[in-house]
Specification:
- This protein is mainly alpha-helical.
- The protein contains nine helices and no strands.
């Protein structure tokens, strides 16, 4: 678990467990109720801890909120670095890489949207949240550009970024009623991969069917 510079890492297992429970409780309250819901009493109740244990680790609510924001950001970046170690980037072709890119965008949306937005609400606005999303898109674009020879768009550098942001836009609205309600998660994923590949190559979709493709570059 990432630790804040304001905290000395606990040395004893019991102390570490107490800190982990307090942080987990704070994170849950932050996501459920926002910063206003992260009170000392609410945190210690959910953590099954005590006020004394809380103040032995944090100077007060604001100290905890700062730690939670840092924790969320550090955890997101750590897991993202692990994601970039996916073997498909080294061994897969463009279709496999496109599928992995869509999967990772969906995972980022599902796993980190709520937490990062909650962390941003602690004072950083949306800057940290949007910075993380931009970094994800840029690094996925770099992985796709490793298949440069397979991309037929005349401006691959631009195309991969436009396509990834378009896919992310669809994912952002998944389940909101904006995307077609007759598409289940697997079908929507398949369509996002097809859209990405069609924009980059204009070739047949990855499930063997044909995509009606309008050549905007001619």
């Amino acid at each position: 678990m990432p630790t804040s510079p304001r905290l000395a890492p606990p040395r004893q297992p019991r102390s570490r467990k107490t800190l982990e429970r307090i942080v987990a409780a704070g994170l849950a309250l932050l996501e459920e109720e926002g910063p206003a819901g992260v009170t000392v009493q609410a945190v210690v109740k959910r953590a099954r801890s005590s006020v004394g244990s809380f103040y032995a680790r944090f100077r007060g609510k604001e100290d905890l909120l700062a730690h939670l924001a840092e924790h969320v950001r550090d955890a997101a970046m750590l897991e993202w670095r692990i994601t970039l170690g996916d073997p498909v980037w080294a061994t897969g072709d463009l279709a496999q890489a496109a599928g992995a890119a869509v999967d990772h965008l969906r995972d980022v949306r599902a796993r980190w949207d709520t937490g990062l937005k909650a962390a941003a609400a602690l004072g950083g606005g949306d800057q940290d949240y949007e910075t993380f999303r931009r970094r994800v898109v840029e690094e996925l674009a770099s992985r796709l550009l490793e298949r440069y020879a397979e991309i037929t768009h005349p401006s691959p550098d631009v195309a991969v970024r436009v396509a990834l942001w378009a896919v992310l836009g669809v994912i952002d609205h998944e389940g909101s009623g904006v995307t077609p309600t007759d598409l289940d998660a697997d079908k929507l994923r398949s369509e996002c991969v097809a859209m990405l590949l069609a924009y980059l190559t204009g070739r047949p979709r990855d499930d063997g069917g044909q995509v009606d493709f309008f050549d905007v570059w001619s």
